[in-house]
Amino acid sequence: MQATAYTYDPETRSGQVLLDDGTPVPFDAPAFDAGGLRLLRPGQRVRIETEGEGPGLRITLVTLQTF
Question: Which stretches of the chain are assigned E, i.e. beta strand?
Answer without folding.
Answer: 2-9, 14-19, 24-27, 45-51, 58-64
